[in-house]
Amino acid sequence: MAGSDDEGTAESGRVVQGIQDFLRGRSHDTVLSALALLALAWADLAVWRVTGLAQLQLAGIVLGALLFICGGLGLVLMINLHTGRREPGDTLTAGIILALGGVVAASIGIWLALAWAVAAATGIGGVGVILLLRGMGLLPQSQLSLGISMALGGGAILSLAVLQPEAVWMLLPLLLLGLGMAGLHHRRYQLAGFVLGCYLAGLGSVGWLVSPEVAAGGLLGGGLTMSGSGMLFLLRRSDREARRVMLTEVESALAGSHPSAALEAANRVMRRAQQDGMLLEDDRLWASKARALLGHRQYDRAITYFSMALEIAPQDEQLWFEKGTLYQRLGQWPGAARCFAQATELEYTFPEAWLALGLARERLAELPEAEEALLTGLELGCEPAAAYLGLGRVLAGMGKVRDALKALEQAIALEPENPDPYMARGDIYLSLKDFERACEKGYSRAVQHQPDLKEGWWKLAEVYRLQQSPELVLMVLTRILEADPNDVRALWERADQHYQSKQMADAMGDLHKLLALDPGHQKARQFKALILEKLDGEGWS
C-alpha cells in the first residue's frame, strides 16, 4: 500500500513538473489566451441575451470550464516566475479547504438549482484562492489584505448580479477601471489577481447551468481582477522569463570564459529591467552583474552588487556564500566568515558553507569554532579531503597532535597526490623538532608529488639547516633555481652557502646573477666586496 502511494505521488510530481516545463517561456501566450477566452465568454453571453440559443449556453459553460483551468495554469506560471525564496504562510490548509470547498458547494448549488448558493460559494472560494497563494509563498503577507479585498469584491459583484439582475449592466464600466486598478496594486504579483479572476469567472460561468445571472456576475467579478492583472502583466512587460533568457546569456558567457560579453549582457538585462520598473525587485539582476564584474576582476564593485542583491533577497543563502567566496579571494577573512555564517544560519544543511566557514575561522585563529564548523561540514557531506586537511591544521594549532595527524591521514587517503596534507604533516613534525619525520613524511613527499612546489623546497632547506646538513641545503637551493633561475632569495642563500663551504667562485657567480636581476641589492654588493677582499682581488671585478 505504501509503495502504491509513493508511486502515485511520484507520478503526480512528474505530471506537475511536465506542466511547469511546458509553460516555461509561454507565460505571455498563456495570459493572452485566457483574456481571449474571457472576451469570447462575454461575447457569447451578449449574443445569447439576444438570441437565446441553447448552443450558446453550452458554449458559455465550456468557456467557463476553460477559464477555470486557466486559473490552475496561472498558478503554475506564478511558480515558474517566482525568483526569490518562497516563504510559505500558515494559510495553505485554509486556502485549499475554501478553494475546493467553493467548487464543491457551487456544484451542489447547481444540482439544487440555487443561484444564490452558487454565487456565494464562488465568492468564498475566491477568498480561498488568495489564502492558497499566500500559503504557497507566492503572495507576500503585505499583499494578503489587498488580495482578500479583491476576492470579496469580485464575489460581491457576483452575488449582486444574482440578487439584483437589473444592476449588472450598470457595473460594466468597472471592468475598464479594473484594467488599471487591480494590476497596479499588485505590481510584481500581477498573476495573483489573474488566478483569482480565472477562478471566479470560470466557476461563475459554469453556474450558467442554473442562471445566466450567475455567469454574468462571474464574468464581471472575475473579469475585473483577471483583466486588470493580466493586461498589466502584458503591458508592463514584466514577464520574468524574458529576463531569464538574458540572464542565461550572462551565465553562458561566464562559463565560456568571456567576461566582456558577460558584462555587456548583464548591463543589457539591467537596462531592460529598469525600463520595466523591476530593477530593485529582482535580485538575479544584481547577482549576475556581480558575477560579470568578478570575471573582470573588479572585486570592489562586485561586492557592491552582491550587497544590492542581498538587500532584495536577504534570505538567499547562495548569494551570501558567493559574497563570502569573494571576500575569501580578497583575503578579507572577517567579511568572509560573516557571510558564510549567515549562509549556514539560513540553510543549516549547506555543507560547502560550513567548510568555507571553518577555513575562514582558521585564518582568524578562532580554532574551536573552526573545528566545530569543519566537523559539521563533514557530517553534512562537504568535500571530505579539504575538510580533513583544514581539520588537521586546526587540531594541530589547538595542540591535539595525535588527532591532527589522524585527520591528515584521512586527507592523504582521499587525495594521495595532493601535496598540502604532506606539508601540514611536515609542519607538525617540525614543530615537534622531529626533523627526520618532517622531511620523510612531510616535505619530501610534498615535492615528490609536486616538484615545482617552492614552498616545500624551502621547508626542506629549513629542516636540513636545522640538521646541519649543508650539502643537502645546497642541493635544495640548486633545485629551486633549476625551477626558477631568477629567484633572488635562492641566489642569495646559495651564495651564502657557497661562501660557508669556501666555494668562493661559485658564491661570486650567484652574486653576479643576483646583481644583474637587482642592481640595487646593497647586501649583495657588500657580500661581493667581502669575497673580493678574501680573494685579495684576484681577477674579480
From TrEMBL:
Pfam families xrefs: TPR_16
TPR repeats: 283-316, 385-418
Keywords for the protein's UniProt record, in alphabetical order: Membrane, TPR repeat, Transmembrane, Transmembrane helix
SMART domains: TPR
Residue ranges crossing the lipid bilayer per the database entry: 31-50, 56-79, 91-108, 114-132, 144-161, 167-184, 191-210, 216-235
InterPro entries tied to this protein: TPR-like_helical_dom_sf, TPR_rpt
Top-level taxon in the UniProt lineage: Archaea
Record's protein name: Tetratricopeptide repeat protein
Taxonomic source organism: Marine Group III euryarchaeote
